[in-house]
């Protein structure tokens, strides 16, 4: 007996194109999600015209389309369920259809009257952000954006194309994302920083916007998140001055503890140099339970521990003593979503 999805026309088309044929023959064509996202006009995105996307070309497309259609509901519970639906496709490694939702996720976040705006931003970024799984925190993984390899979806679609499409979608709407760095909601500001660093272009503009926000930011948790975002950009686009900036922050006793801790974590990921004694002293003094509680809601922390409760402890142990780091807990790809209002 065939599984239900084996009778699905989209699945059959993917098998013919990517299993029986050469995927590169379809680059730029109607089955290339990167091309589909790129062809979506700014007018269609701003009008939330999700039916301008050919959802039925992609496995799980109609289901994702239905979830996107519910994102602008006046009922917060309906929006939350729709986001969970897109999250579920991502958890099932359907990067392509999740990428098709990115322009609309960003507009949900940009709507001051929208619901679960920070979750929408974090979900858009999560298509790209490489999460090593709870407990797997090392100098090589904490700030990594991608694993560098090819990914394939259960349908055999080239999942790497979906990840690239999501990065391109964020880059195309970089102005929208950067504007959200000034949003009144601190959770949205932190999520905007997390989303901005995955863009495929305009890196210098995004870095400048993050630095500007950092200088003006008053919320200590958001400031810590901005430091992690800037360190992550430096991990992707390395330069000596970026490493020096993080070092200056963690070495500055005038900086708040969470900022010094984030800068120390960032510096450790940007260099393979031996850990200096003064950095260890900073972490001993600043990586307290109070700091861990303050930082637990940051997306980078939840990538290490879904609840965030043990994230900072795991980060410090994994970065300073990788041989002593706790074994990873069960890696649940569905995870516990952020409980943003």
TrEMBL record:
<dbReference type="Pfam" id="PF02985">
    <property type="entry name" value="HEAT"/>
</dbReference>
<keyword id="KW-0677">Repeat</keyword>
<dbReference type="InterPro" id="IPR016024">
    <property type="entry name" value="ARM-type_fold"/>
</dbReference>
<protein>
    <recommendedName>
        <fullName>HEAT repeat domain-containing protein</fullName>
    </recommendedName>
</protein>
<dbReference type="InterPro" id="IPR011989">
    <property type="entry name" value="ARM-like"/>
</dbReference>
<dbReference type="InterPro" id="IPR000357">
    <property type="entry name" value="HEAT"/>
</dbReference>
């Amino acid at each position: 007996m065939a599984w239900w999805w084996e009778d699905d026309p989209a699945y059959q088309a993917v098998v013919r194109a990517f299993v029986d044929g050469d995927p590169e023959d379809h680059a730029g064509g109607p089955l290339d999600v990167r091309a589909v996202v790129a062809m979506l006009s700014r007018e269609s995105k701003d009008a939330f015209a999700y039916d301008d996307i050919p959802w039925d070309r992609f496995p799980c497309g109609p289901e994702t389309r239905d979830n996107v259609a519910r994102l602008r509901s006046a009922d917060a519970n309906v929006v939350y369920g729709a986001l969970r639906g897109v999250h579920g496709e991502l958890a099932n490694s359907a990067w392509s259809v999740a990428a098709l939702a990115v322009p609309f996720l960003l507009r949900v976040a940009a709507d001051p009257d929208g619901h679960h705006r920070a979750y929408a931003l974090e979900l858009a970024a999560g298509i790209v952000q490489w999460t090593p799984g709870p407990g797997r925190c090392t100098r090589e993984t904490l700030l990594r954006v991608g694993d560098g390899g090819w990914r394939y979806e259960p349908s055999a679609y080239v999942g790497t194309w979906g990840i690239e499409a999501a990065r391109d979608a964020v880059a195309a709407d970089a102005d929208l994302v950067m504007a959200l760095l000034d949003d009144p909601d601190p959770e949205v500001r932190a999520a905007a920083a997390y989303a901005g660093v995955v863009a495929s272009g305009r890196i210098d503009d995004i870095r400048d916007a993050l630095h500007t926000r950092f200088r003006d930011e008053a919320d200590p948790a958001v400031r810590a998140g901005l430091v992690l975002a800037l360190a992550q950009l430096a991990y992707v686009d390395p330069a000596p001055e970026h490493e020096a900036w993080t070092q200056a922050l963690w070495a500055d006793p005038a900086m708040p503890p969470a900022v010094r801790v984030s800068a120390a974590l960032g510096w450790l990921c940007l260099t393979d140099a031996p850990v200096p004694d003064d950095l260890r002293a900073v972490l001993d003094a600043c990586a307290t339970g109070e700091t861990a509680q303050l930082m637990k809601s940051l997306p980078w922390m939840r990538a290490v521990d879904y609840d965030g409760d043990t994230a900072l402890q795991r980060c410090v142990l994994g970065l300073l003593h990788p041989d002593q780091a706790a074994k990873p807990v069960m890696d649940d790809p569905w995870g516990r979503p952020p409980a943003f209002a």
